[in-house]
């Protein structure tokens, strides 16, 4: 039947009993499948990570300023990667950097959840925060 119509016999579900086959134009079928996957990729939400940099001796005013920026990023739905960059001999103050990042996470706990606790990699100590899901509205 497929040869008479100049189409292809395509096996749709080989595991079914009996196997399911269709008479279709296979190249058109493949094209539509590609189109569907392209649309799915376009609709997929892309994760954007915003970075906020601290020094181990960051002062209170600078901390508050960066805190407000992070809050804005999280409310916009972005992830925030905050880090303390140790320059030269300041690597001695690892504890100070960790305390700063934990203080940062604690200040943002109402709008963000900690995805990764402070971790030292080379000369930087990272903390990754992601926005909390918005509470469902009650009807």
UniProtKB/TrEMBL annotation:
Keywords: Initiation factor, Protein biosynthesis. One of its GO terms (cellular component) is membrane. InterPro entries: T_IF-3_C_sf (IPR036788), T_IF-3_N_sf (IPR036787), Translation_initiation_fac3_CS (IPR019813), Translation_initiation_fac_3 (IPR001288), Translation_initiation_fac_3_C (IPR019815), Translation_initiation_fac_3_N (IPR019814). One of its GO terms (molecular function) is ribosome binding. Residues 47-132 form the Translation initiation factor 3 C-terminal domain. It is found in: Cytoplasm. One of its GO terms (biological process) is ribosome disassembly. Residues 1-39 form the Translation initiation factor 3 N-terminal domain. The keyword Protein biosynthesis applies. Gene3D superfamilies: Translation initiation factor 3 (IF-3), C-terminal domain, Translation initiation factor 3 (IF-3), N-terminal domain. Monomer. This is Translation initiation factor IF-3.
């Amino acid at each position: 039947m497929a040869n008479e119509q100049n189409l292809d016999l395509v096996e749709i579900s080989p595991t079914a009993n009996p196997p399911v086959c269709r008479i279709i134009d296979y190249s058109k079928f493949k094209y539509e499948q590609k189109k569907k996957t392209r649309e799915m990729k376009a609709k997929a939400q892309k994760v954007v990570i915003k970075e906020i940099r601290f020094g181990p001796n960051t002062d209170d005013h600078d901390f508050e300023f960066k805190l407000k920026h992070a809050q804005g990023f999280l409310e916009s739905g972005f992830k925030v990667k905050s880090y303390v960059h140790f320059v030269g001999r300041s690597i001695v103050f690892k504890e100070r950097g960790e305390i700063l990042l934990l203080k940062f996470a604690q200040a943002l706990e109402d709008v963000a959840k900690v995805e990764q606790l402070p971790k030292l990699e080379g000369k930087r100590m990272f903390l990754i925060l992601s926005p909390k899901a918005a509470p469902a509205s009650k009807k």
